[in-house]
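User: Show me a protein chain along with its predicted structure.
Assistant: Here is one chain, sequence first, then structure tokens.
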Amino acid sequence: MANVKWFDQSQPQTLQGAVIFCYLNAAFGVLYFLRGAPLSAILILLGVAAYFIANERRWAYWAGVVIAGLYLALQLLAFFTFQHSFSGILNLVFAAILLALLLHPQSRSYEKIWFH
């Protein structure tokens, strides 16, 4: 357990940014869970994926991509059906940025070479 890390500075900046965004989303997910919001489980799962991405697990990278894609789809659905506000736009933009950081060519090439 000595090699376990929460954040890996040797990863490319795009992957580091994605890990930070996932942790921030997980923190908000815990707050939403305490208020009883339904999206909190997805956000908490992003935090779990971020932890294993920092520890270079290939399955966690792809789980993070799938969960971030699902989160973006739910934010799109929520924006077009419920929220036509500035906060809805911000949620949508940050969900898109997270997915873009995970799918960036630097992140993907690093995952292909170094993750196990």
